[in-house]
Amino acid sequence: MDPGLTPPRDQAALQLRAERLTRHFTFGGGLMARGAGTVRALSEVDFELTAGQTLAIVGESGCGKSTLARLVLNLDRPTAGRVLLNGEDIHAARGRALRRFRRQVQAVFQDPWASLNPRMRVRDLVAEPLDMQHRLPRSEREERVAQVLQRVGIDPARMHAYPHEFSGGQRQRIAIASALISDPKLIVLDEPVSALDVSIRSQVMNLFRDLQEERGIAFLLIAHDLATTAFLAHRIAVMYLGRIVELGPTEQMVAAPAHPYTRSLFGAALPAHPDAGPGAPPLSGEIPSPLAQPPGCAFHTRCPARIGPVCDTQRPVPTKVGAGWSVECHLHAGTEP
């Protein structure tokens, strides 16, 4: 490993914790609006993430994945609840604490073309997070850029080029280099390979795994591709209408998902999986509007295993179904091991 890429000594101390994280968006009635309303984008979300681990957030479009990512990146503020990084509330951070947070937490987004300024040279794009924290001599700055570019598979001799001179896969590697240069503890990966050709995806996913093994980085992976999720994630959180309905170890959840929604979701996305047969019927109907969420279990309007009035009227509480594995479903109420 290059000397400039040695992980920080306190990397192993990372603990990210979301506590009853909630984000509602309220719209007032206007001239062209029919009335006020509240979108419950995120409701009472809890999870933990530690160094060297990947937690994947999966679910259908509109389930709250992107809202959660924005809150963890401190690009938005919660309506209630909080996000703690090593015990500190990130949304209360100011001054030096906020600068420390920006150094420790970075992101890699879905579309590298959209996330890279086409008017900036690669050396300046990659160094931008570093420039916000340090005023390094030019020679040292370029040495750091060269080291991180080489680590992600980009020839450092091309650091003076512009993004349009690179392929899509290379641009994503440049975005990864920019995220790495400040030695972050956590990187939010927002659909990081979905815009890439299939032939390139595996290369980039292997790069993420190698970097995590070398540097102990934690990844919060936002994804809809469950094949990517199963490859990268140690744990999976399945979201439905702003709530985590199942959270557990990847291997166990893929082998035997506990929530009816998870079974249907995995059955549709992983057709080779044995649970993709009669035990995992395809999802029917449309996801309810977040403006008018149903009472009781939010999934009951589409659930093939609906129990009746209890599902229609009572919201299930998280139930432990295994080590580090919980599910919000009345089917498992009272079965906590």
Describe the protein in words.
This protein has helices at 65-72, 95-104, 112-115, 122-131, 138-151, 168-180, 198-215, 226-232, 250-255, 260-269, 309-313, and strands spanning 15-27, 37-50, 54-58, 80-85, 88-89, 105-108, 186-190, 218-222, 235-240, 243-249, 318-322, 325-328. Residues 1-11 and 274-278 have low confidence and may be disordered. The strands form two sheets. An eight-stranded mixed β-sheet has the order 6-7-8-3-9-10-12-11, sandwiched between helices. A four-stranded antiparallel β-sheet has the order 2-1-4-5, covered by helices on one side. The protein is globular. Helix 4 (122-131) packs across helix 5, helix 4 runs parallel beside helix 6 (168-180) and helix 5 (138-151) crosses helix 6. Helices cover 31% and strands 23% of the residues. The termini are far apart. It contains eleven helices and twelve strands. The longest helix has 18 residues, at 198-215. Strand 11 and strand 12 form a beta hairpin. With 337 residues, the chain is α/β, with parallel strands linked by helices.
